[in-house]
Backbone:
């Protein structure tokens, strides 16, 4: 399979409540005017970036039942995450893990470390 811009993240599987985020440039401003002041970013306590991929969410414990006719894939259920692909996320660096993928920097962040999301939707 040839890797293209459209499918390059397809083989990545984000686990649980984790979110893959591509950080923005320090002086990048969104169309609505949202950006982090340089003083905040220099301290590296808070960062912003775009959500690339999300995990399935928080797993819900399932009671084990003796029902042999049930498909085992139906056993695991998840509470979905608030973050969606394309959202701009403001997140705490203390909860983030930096990774390099295809020579680009990304962060893996648990949903609990995200402070705010900006979503481009019609209100």
Residues:
């Amino acid at each position: 399979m040839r890797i293209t811009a459209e499918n390059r993240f397809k083989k990545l599987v984000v686990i649980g409540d984790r979110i893959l985020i591509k950080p923005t440039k320090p002086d990048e401003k969104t169309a609505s005017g949202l950006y982090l002041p340089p003083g905040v970013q220099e301290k590296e306590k808070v960062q912003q970036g775009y959500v690339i991929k999300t995990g399935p969410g928080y797993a819900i414990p399932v009671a084990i039942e003796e029902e042999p006719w049930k498909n085992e894939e139906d056993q695991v259920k998840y509470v979905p995450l608030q973050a969606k692909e394309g959202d701009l996320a403001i997140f705490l660096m203390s909860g983030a893990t930096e990774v390099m993928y295809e020579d680009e920097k990304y962060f893996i962040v648990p949903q609990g470390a995200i402070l705010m999301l900006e979503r481009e939707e019609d209100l």
